[in-house]
Amino acid sequence: MTPITEVEGRRVALSNLEKVLHPATGFTKGELLHYYATTADVLLPHLRDRPVSFLRYPDGPDGQVFFTKNVPPGTPEWVTTAEVPRSEGPARMVLVQDLPSLMWAANLVAEFHTHQWVISHPEVADRMVFDLDPGAPANVVHCCEVALWLRERLAADGIDAYPKTSGSKGLHLLAAVRPTPSDQVTEYAKGLAVEAERTMPRLVVHRMTRSLRPGKVFVDWSQNAARKTTATPYTLRARSTPTVSAPVTWEEVEACRDAGQLTFLATDIAPRVQDYGDVLAPLLDAGRASPLP
């Protein structure tokens, strides 16, 4: 029988608590649910009002891994959903607005991926993102070098950027921007990626072409497109270990000399939040959003 837990007055079914989802460390589904419950205070503000795509891995990263964008069958009626524009026609997606919805979604075993816009203004971005993806033998240390250049270049345009790990190999840079059509944000981000490649041609590539990427950092500007999503801050990733897309300080980026320094597991996050709070909190302050030049 599937256990039923009451979360803030909602009945939430939590199943298969002993199942191992991250085999390298034996991290179970029960531990995953505990992680999301204890991280909710900093995670939920980054999910709220943003349609969520779920990258599901219900049998671990070695099992079937698949994206779910539409509202999954069996979604409780109290989970908020909204109609979202798509090129093939509007679709209905989930909004994770509160703790009960978060725990229901976590029970699906999924990474959380969100757009750079909120549901009240579809395709009008209030965030900008750069995904710094290293091609071996480059690693996150090289991403840090590129991130520091982008920080200064964005600052020259009056834009404050904030880093987080991807939870995989690289780094993400996020910035709060005044509401701007997504295509304009995409064009601006592409311009900076091209400029980064011109400035650091031995280190940076702005095109996705695989043959160009070994030993370089791909500055992916395309995730600013209205229909694309990026891993949400604090989401677990579908890896053999329970890595997290973890906010980091610029001091940590500056000091990074080894890839292991910017690898964070679920068990690392509560102490980090206690020490730093949510270092991405400025992204949630509309008064700190910057206009694009």
TrEMBL record:
Which superkingdom is the protein from? Bacteria
Instruction: Give EC number(s), comma-separated.
Output: 6.5.1.1
Q: Which UniProt keywords apply?
A: Ligase
> Where would I find the DNA ligase D polymerase domain in this sequence?
28-278
**What Pfam family is a match for this entry?**
LigD_Prim-Pol
Q: Does the keyword Protein biosynthesis apply?
A: no
A Gene Ontology molecular function term for this protein is: DNA ligase (ATP) activity
Look up the coiled coil feature and give its residue ranges: none
* Presence of keyword Ligase: yes
Tell me the protein's name.
Non-homologous end-joining DNA ligase
Q: Which organism is it from?
A: Streptomyces chromofuscus
Q: Which gene encodes it?
A: ligD
